[in-house]
């Protein structure tokens, strides 16, 4: 349970640092992609990989598989200690942490992972860089992914945290936040 709270806290920090809105905020100039600050709306395409539910909605299982395929293909090994998602949010959130210490070049593996996600229709919306750390916001359908590389110096942490922005999931996130405020 402690690890689940750590993952939720880390997700909160990532969302706070990089901005959690998929629209309305100013991301112009901070994006290194050609999208020029586009939002997630309508970004799913017919060329995407499988794993969608009826009606074309991308599932958490499919999102996790796309992250895992891109990350392991780029040279990362999953760090099993940091991937728990809080109970009740399994359909709304995906967490995949790399064991960056085992990667030959974590920065290159991170860049290759983001590029691999681009090949399966994830669009880079924002890029935030500070003190050697990089956080990229990617989107696909109703999903928003924060790809974080903090592999500078002693700290070697690379995380991919995706959240589903449907009204049902937004309600589940709000309920989880309210529940945790009481604890």
3D architecture notes:
- With 183 residues, this protein is an alpha+beta fold.
- It is 33% helix and 21% strand.
- The protein has a five-stranded antiparallel β-sheet, with helices on both faces.
- β2 (123-130) and β3 (133-140) form a beta hairpin.
- The radius of gyration is 15 Å and the shape is globular.
- Residues 1-55 have low confidence and may be disordered.
Task: Classify the helix fraction into a percent range.
Answer: 25-40%
Total strand segments: 5
Principal-axes shape call: globular
Strand content: 15-25%
- Spatially, the strands of the biggest sheet line up as 1-5-4-3-2
Structural class of the secondary elements?
A: alpha+beta
Distance between the termini: 13 Å
Over all CA atoms, what is the radius of gyration? Answer: 15 Å
DSSP helical segment count: 4
Low-confidence stretches: 1-55
Mean pLDDT figure: 77
Largest sheet: 5 strands, antiparallel
Order of helices and strands: HHEHEEEEH
Keyword list:
5 strands, disordered N terminus, 183 residues, alpha+beta, 4 helices, 21% strand, globular, five-stranded antiparallel beta sheet
Q: What is the secondary structure topology, with strand pairs?
A:
Elements: H1 2-18, H2 60-73, E1 93-98, H3 106-118, E2 123-130, E3 133-140, E4 143-150, E5 157-164, H4 167-182
Antiparallel strand pairs: 1-5, 2-3, 3-4, 4-5
Summarize the structure.
The protein is an alpha+beta fold.
